[in-house]
Amino acid sequence: MSRKIQIFDTTLRDGEQVPGSKLRPNEKLEIVRELDLLGVDIIELGFPCSSPDDFKVFKLVGGEVKRPVFCALSRAVESDIKMAGEALAYVKHGRIHTGIGTSPSHIKYKFNSDEDKIIERAVAAVKYAKTFVEEVEFYAEDAGRSDNVFLARIFEKVIAAGATVLNVPDTTGYCLPSQYGAKIKYLYENVKGIHKVVVATHCHNDLGLATANTIAGIENGAGQVECTINGVGERAGNTSLEEVAMIIKQHELGLHCNIVSERLTNISDLVSNKLNIAVQPNKAIVGKNAFSHSSGIHQDGVIKHRETYEIIDPAEVGAGQSQIILTARSGRAALDFAAKKTGHTLNQNHLQLVYDKFIHVADQEKNISYDRLSELIKTVI
Ligand code: KIV
Ligand code: ZN
Description:
Layout: E1 3-4, E2 6-9, H1 25-38, E3 42-46, H2 52-62, E4 69-75, H3 78-88, E5 94-101, H4 104-110, H5 115-130, E6 135-141, H6 148-161, E7 165-170, H7 177-190, E8 198-203, H8 210-219, E9 224-227, H9 241-250, E10 255-256, H10 264-275, E11 292-293, H11 296-304, E12 323-324, H12 332-341, H13 348-365, H14 370-380
Helix pairs in contact: 1-2, 1-10, 2-3, 5-6, 6-7, 7-8, 11-12, 12-14, 13-14
Bound molecules: 3-methyl-2-oxobutanoic acid and zinc ion (ZN).
Zinc ion binds next to loops.
């Protein structure tokens, strides 16, 4: 039986923390509409105590979008939790996401505290959050660098206090996949009551391992993935939603999720425009070059049989068709293919003549458009 992975999108909270990317409530609403159509299960809308806009957006969105669970972030601070609870009064399904740092450096330097006092604050925060909503997610900030024995202790206490989801953030993107996977496994084996709640992954990308760590987490039992569109987020960003969704789809992991993959390119463009953050061309799944082929050997292979060099049909992620880009690395197979697209059928002799001319022009002009090729053909035949 396939296990369902809940997709928790935090583009509008963790993702929006990127400098210069602050969104107004109506812009968040536009993205929420798309996240809803994409099939995201939980949408983290903001941090209500951080600014009036972050509070207002719950009312605006809650009045229109009813299906997903909407999540409000708070620290383990009474006034934060109260504002999160008040903001969630406007949505149909609400969740408070509260928590506290659990690693040695957070406990010592951020809080000048000790493990027992951190547990007390965590338990009090969860109990208070429960007075507003049934669904309370507890995050152990910097869990990636926290001691597993302490994590197990604090998680056990917050479950007893009513937490329904345990979030295990690798806040600094430090873990290796084997370490992060082992952490989730350890928690399943050592936390009383853990099977009654959902365990969430929340991985940052400082070492480029966010997606790999997330997959290690769900392979070891986690049931919720926290991620952002295009992997946007502070510093090197968060786990990218589109990567996780397509890994779950492409591999036989005994897992599934509700993401409508055909909508991924569209939402990637929307988020990129709204946050004013360009997507790198070689970004997996949604980069401009993710389905482009420019070297002769690859072009020949793709033209003969697309799967030779593509593991995903671009149509499956809403990216249209594979692209054969004409460059100085292209060969005769690509030229013949592009010539046909522009209405020219070349015999072997003409193809060789066009190729001889093309290769000199391509050395000067980098990419040759199909229109430019058509002009070249006309000068040769
Ligand atoms: O990275 C992190 O630890 C967070 C928490 C606030 C969940 O974003
Ligand atoms: Zn984060």
